[in-house]
């Protein structure tokens, strides 16, 4: 199930919220665990089994790790086995197809059959969450969770289940047992949920339509090509950060507090800064569980370069089972190394408008690599961004771009903290609560309108 | 009191979702969507098998969006919101000046046009038919001055020129100049529908009669029916638009028999080219010859002319009524539905003339001419 659907908002939430609030404290987690499994298995019920296996294994490993924590060797072995099991699950479901396809490139093995394995939604997120739990238990940073339901609730919790944020166990361990639901928090949650919904439905979806049309069209011209990838730049940010906002909002409604996942990434002045602001929970995870354990920057320069390489190779691969994602990760690896060694000092000195332009240029270019799994098409698109062979803008692209221009401008503005400040200012007037309530209703209405319209299909050659 | 104000957003949110939840559960469900002209989905069948393979949840999703409370209202909200965002034409219908709703250009192709026209030419030659072709330009092409300034290109010129160049011995009637000259005086197209008005169809009839050497001296009693909401209205979702009125041009001297012939169905007969029961619907265009059918036969024993085959799309419906004044028998065939041999129809009924009548949209997209045999 996804948040931006009629079923989730008008059926699922309407059933889940009242029951959750009526139930006694003791039963709340069990209920959340159960409805999260329903949420998860809504499209593909068989994956509920996978989820239960994953929770059970990590539950048992957590207890074992705690028991043998003092025996370094044994604990290490246990953790290694646990990490291998988690990664093997992720690897099988997410990367087996990719691995076989890659191996098939070797002529002698080209006869292999590519297996048909469906990708369980959210597996990349909840595998990482589970691993943060067992690793932190191993390190002694938290106690093992003796309560199976509490651990299950943590891993399967529907708000962050399918698109993050990747909540670390230690960040919510306390909330799992003691959390307070208040009307204040609930109201914040509703607002955050609606902000996320607006981002997703009002901007991301429209930008997605624009990009889908420009991506495949020919003869867009230089401006058309740039507008296309800028549309994707806006789409992915508003889609992803909108989803994170909805997740945090729903968390609030249920009494949880989750970490912020995006912090205006497009106002960065360097790629280093961009990665501090983009998908924060993922960067934190890689830093905590890959970069630092590998030695970080404490073991000499060449080791640090290797560590960064490993982190960015894996970050790329985490985003999808295809070589373009690896290329995307390594693209940032190269830029980050370059920034670390010389560029950051330069960027500090030049007027900020140039450093903003520099960062945006490489972020936007990066999205081309991210969104083309076909390397040939990727190359062609990059050429079209810089070659004048199709002129400035094609006829079809011009009509399309003009019709989306107002929304793009709104989207661009909404990427900056100025937008937030402006909205806060409007809502801080004397009757701000009326405006705020009206905004909630308006976004909800527009969300229904957009969801309902997509199923509105006039059948014009009706005959009988 | 102050606190309640602070919590209003969440109270409003909860109220809204519970009201819609309740309305969805308890409101009676419509079976048919008048605007979409389609049967809405039925409640999904609950079974373990459907649940396991994901069909149940998918069906349920369709069911919820098909029966969501105030569904049509929300479709309208989306249309006007798109307009507000500068996305006129988002649902493939432009919101134009003077109350016109005009369909965005169809995805027409010159290649399809060429192969259709060649098939028409071959068919006429093979059956030694005296052939004429009319291609009706789209409303957006003719009424360009009312369109919003930012709109997709209408390439009717390319389509009509392609048809003209490839039609060989077929007499080609080019309406473009006629329409250009009179479009400011006569309303050629409906405002909420893509078809020609009766006045527009009459202009087309005059052009056809001139080419054939017929006289067009008949007099008409014009009956006007209000409240016609056409295809562009249904598709665009601009519910606040004014309806069209539809004109029925009655020729008092015309005494015809109309037969609607469908394979596997009983033939329906009517003593007029107008099917007045269709006027009860919002979309009243099917009042002309009852809308889309695979074969419609019109007999007029008083007519001087011979037998005519009309291969057409829906632009022919209000036009063929005029033609009935001239021909003793007209066989109006829609290639989108007709699946038996046309050659047989021609020989069995000794038909000697054929008229190909298409709008540019269908001529440039429809590939059913492959069934022409």
Strand order of the largest sheet of chain B: 6-5-14-12-13-11-9-10
Please give the share of residues in helix of chain A. over 70%
The parts of chain B where pLDDT drops under 50 for at least 5 residues are none
**What is the chain-wise order of helices and strands of chain B?**
HEEHHHEEHEHHEHHEHEEEEEHEHEH
Q: How many domains, in number, for the residues of chain B?
A: 2
Largest sheet of chain A: none
Alpha-carbon Rg of chain A, integer: 24 Å
Major β-sheet annotation of chain B: 8 strands, mixed
What amount of the residues of chain B lies in strands?
A: 15-25%
Low-confidence runs of at least 5 consecutive residues of chain A: none
DSSP strand count of chain A? 0
Q: Structural class of the helix and strand makeup of chain B?
A: alpha/beta
What is the average of the pLDDT values of chain A? 90
Distance between the termini of chain A: 37 Å
**What is the helix/strand order of chain A?**
HHHHHHHHHHHHHHHHHHH
Please indicate the count of domains of chain A. Answer: 3
């Amino acid at each position: 199930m996804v948040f931006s659907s009629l079923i989730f908002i008008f059926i699922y939430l309407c059933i889940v919220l009242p029951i959750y609030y009526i139930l006694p404290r003791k039963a709340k987690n069990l209920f959340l665990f159960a409805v999260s499994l329903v949420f998860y298995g809504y499209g593909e019920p068989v994956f509920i089994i996978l989820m239960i296996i994953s929770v059970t294994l990590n539950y048992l490993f957590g207890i074992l790790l705690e028991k043998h924590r003092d025996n370094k060797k044994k604990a290490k072995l246990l953790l290694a086995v646990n990490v291998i099991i988690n990664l093997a699950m992720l690897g099988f479901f997410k990367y087996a197809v990719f691995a076989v396809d890659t191996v098939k490139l070797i002529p002698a093995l080209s006869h292999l059959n590519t297996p048909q394995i469906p990708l369980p939604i959210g597996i990349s997120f909840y595998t990482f969450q589970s691993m943060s739990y067992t690793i932190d238990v191993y390190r002694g940073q938290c106690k093992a969770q003796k309560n199976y339901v509490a651990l299950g609730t943590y891993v399967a919790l529907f708000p962050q289940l399918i698109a993050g944020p990747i909540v670390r166990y230690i960040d919510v361990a306390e909330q799992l047992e003691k959390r307070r639901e208040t009307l204040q928090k609930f109201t914040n949650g509703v607002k955050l949920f609606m902000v996320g919904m607006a981002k997703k439905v009002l901007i991301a979806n429209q930008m997605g339509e624009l990009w889908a049309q420009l991506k495949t069209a020919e003869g867009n011209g230089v401006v058309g090509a740039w507008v296309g990838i800028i549309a994707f730049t806006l789409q992915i940010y508003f889609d992803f950060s909108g989803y994170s906002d909805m997740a945090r909002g729903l968390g609030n409604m249920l009494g949880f507090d989750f970490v912020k996942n995006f912090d205006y990434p497009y106002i960065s002045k360097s790629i280093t800064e961009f990665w501090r602001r983009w998908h924060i929970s993922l960067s934190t995870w890689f830093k905590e569980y890959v970069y630092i354990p590998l030695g970080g920057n404490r073991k000499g320069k060449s080791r640090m370069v290797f560590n960064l390489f490993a982190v960015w190779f894996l970050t790329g691969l985490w985003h999808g089972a295809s070589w373009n994602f690896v290329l995307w990760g390594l693209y940032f690896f190269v830029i980050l190394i370059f920034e670390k060694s010389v560029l950051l000092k330069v960027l500090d000195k030049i007027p900020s408008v140039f450093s903003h332009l520099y960062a945006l240029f490489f972020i936007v270019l990066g999205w081309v690599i991210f969104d083309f799994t076909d390397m040939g098409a990727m190359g062609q698109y990059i050429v079209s961004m810089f070659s004048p062979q199709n002129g400035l803008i094609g006829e079809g692209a011009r009509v399309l771009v003009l019709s989306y221009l107002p929304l793009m401008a709104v989207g661009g503005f909404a990427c900056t903290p100025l937008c937030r400040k402006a909205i806060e200012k409007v809502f801080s007037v004397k009757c701000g609560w009326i405006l705020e309530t009206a905004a909630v209703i308006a976004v909800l209405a527009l969300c229904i309108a957009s969801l309902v319209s997509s199923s509105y299909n006039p059948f014009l050659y009706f005959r009988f | 009191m102050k606190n309640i104000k602070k919590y209003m957003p969440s109270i409003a949110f909860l109220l809204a979702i519970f009201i819609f939840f309740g309305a969805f559960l308890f409101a009676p469900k419509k079976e048919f969507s008048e605007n979409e002209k389609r049967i809405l989905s039925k409640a999904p069948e609950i079974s373990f098998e459907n649940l396991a393979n994901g069909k149940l949840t998918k069906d349920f999703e369709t069911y919820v969006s098909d029966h969501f409370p105030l569904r049509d209202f929300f479709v309208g909200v989306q249309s006007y919101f798109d307009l507000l965002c500068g996305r006129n034409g988002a649902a493939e219908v432009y919101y134009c000046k003077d109350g016109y709703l005009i369909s965005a250009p169809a995805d027409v192709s010159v290649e399809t046009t060429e192969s259709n026209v060649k098939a028409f030419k071959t068919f006429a030659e093979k059956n030694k038919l005296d052939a004429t072709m009319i291609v009706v330009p789209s409303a957006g092409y003719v009424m360009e001055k009312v369109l919003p300034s930012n709109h997709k290109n209408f390439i009717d010129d390319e389509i009509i020129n392609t048809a003209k160049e490839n039609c060989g011995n077929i007499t080609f009637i080019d309406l473009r100049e006629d329409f250009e000259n009179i479009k400011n005086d006569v309303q050629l197209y409906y405002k909420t529908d893509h078809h020609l008005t009766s006045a527009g169809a009459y202009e087309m009839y005059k052009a056809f009669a001139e080419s054939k050497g017929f006289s067009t001296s008949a007099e008409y009693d014009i009956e006007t029916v209000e409240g016609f909401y056409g295809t562009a209205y249904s598709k665009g979702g601009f519910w606040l638009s004014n309806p069209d009125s539809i004109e029925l041009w009655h020729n008092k001297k015309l005494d015809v028999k109309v037969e609607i012939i469908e394979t596997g169905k009983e033939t329906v007969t009517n003593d007029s080219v107008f099917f007045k029961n269709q006027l009860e619907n919002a979309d009243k265009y099917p009042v002309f010859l009852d809308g889309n059918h695979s074969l419609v036969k019109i007999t007029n024993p008083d007519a001087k002319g011979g037998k005519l085959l009309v291969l057409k799309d829906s632009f022919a419906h209000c036009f063929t009524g005029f033609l009935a004044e001239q021909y003793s028998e007209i066989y109006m065939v829609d290639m989108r539905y007709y699946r038996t041999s046309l050659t047989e129809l021609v020989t069995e009924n000794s038909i000697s003339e054929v008229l190909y009548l298409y709008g540019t949209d269908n001529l440039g997209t429809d590939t059913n001419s492959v069934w022409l045999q």
